[in-house]
Amino acid sequence: MIIAVDGPTASGKGTIARALAAHFGLPVLDTGLLYRAVGYQTQLDHGDPDDAADALAACDFPDSLLDDPALRYESTGGLASRVSVHPGVRAALFQRQVDFANQPGGAVLDGRDIGTVIAPHADAKLFVTATPEERARRRHAEMLGRGVDVTYEAVLADIHARDARDIGRADAPLLRAADAMLLDNTALDREAAVAAAIAFVKGKVRGCG
Ligand code: C5P
Question: Taking the model in full, what pTM does it have?
Answer without folding.
Answer: 0.95
